[in-house]
Structure formats: C-alpha cells, structure tokens
Amino acid sequence: MSAPRQQKSPISDEAITALQGALATEHAALWSYTLILAFVPTDQAAQARKDIEAHRTLRSQIEQTLTELGARPVSAQPAYTTPQPVTDALSAGRLAVAAEDDAMAAWRSVLEHTEEPQLRAAGLKALVEGTTRSARWRIATDTTPVIPPFPGVTR
Question: Is the distance from CB of 36 to CB of 95 less than 8 angstroms?
C-alpha cells in the first residue's frame, strides 16, 4: 500500500508569501490607524474608523485564506516604526497615506504572484479600495499626486 498523495495547494508558494506580506501590512495599517485616531479631528476620525474596519476585514479574510491553505498566518508586531513622528493631524494624515501606500504595494505583489482567479479578484478589489482610501488622505494632506499613476508601485 502506498502512502496517500498530498494534494498540492492551488496557490503557489510565491502567492502564499505575497499573502503573508499583505497580512503583515494589514497588521501595520491597523496599528497606524489606531495612532492616527489620537491626532485627527472628529470628521477625519470618522473616516479613519471606516478605514480601520476595511483593514480589519481584509486582515480577517487573509488569515482565513492562509489557514485554509495550511499556512500559519504571520502575527502582528507589538509596535511599528512610523516613517516620520506623528505629532498632529497633518503628520497623522501622512501616516495614513504611508499605510495605504504600503498596503497597496503588498496587494499589487499578490496580483503579481498568482494566477488564481479568486485571489486575483480579491487583490484587485483591495488595490482599488486602497487607492480610494489613499486618495482621501492625500487630499486631506495636500499630497500629490492625489492618485498615483500606478497604485502599488513603490519607488
């Protein structure tokens, strides 16, 4: 009697690695938005809470997908380093832009590392929604361009 064949995951190791990267950026985005809430005015705080919910949903979906694929989801770090100190509403808004840009880059990597249709659709949706969130924060912080020519591409 031969040993049972282990079924190969429909998603490549490269795609799983990209998903782990997206999960790590979702953890960082959630941490960042928690900090942002301490510095932004009420109207921006309301938007930040909606953005937190969007990132929380993405994080949960990635964790579920990775678990279903037999991969252990990466854990959140206890804290993250911000690109610049956050001391007021403007610097908090700039952190939101950075968090969204990082997340878009991670989702673009997911798109680049899989041919699986459902995963590509989820990655594209996350990239589009992240572009919208980033544009809102770019407008609030007078950051140009409001929409980068190639969302998710880092320099």
Answer: yes
CA distance 107 to 101: 10
Segment 94-126, tens digit of pLDDT: 999 999 999 999 999 999 999 999 999 999 999
Residues 34-56 have pLDDT tens digits of 999 999 999 999 999 999 999 99
Amino acid at 128: V
Using the structure block, give the residue that is written with the tokens 């960082």: 28
Pull the structure tokens for residue 66.
């990775």
What percentage of the chain has pLDDT greater than the value 90? 88
Cα–Cα distance for residue pair 79/66, rounded to 1 Å: 23
In single-letter form, the type of residue at position 131 comes to: T
Render the chain in DSSP notation, one character per residue: -PPPPPPPPSS-HHHHHHHHHHHHHHHHHHHHHHHHHTTS-HHHHHHHHHHHHHHHHHHHHHHHHHHHTTPPPPPPPS----SS---SHHHHHHHHHHHHHHHHHHHHHHHHT---HHHHHHHHHHHHHHHHHHHHHHHHTT-SSSS-SSTT---
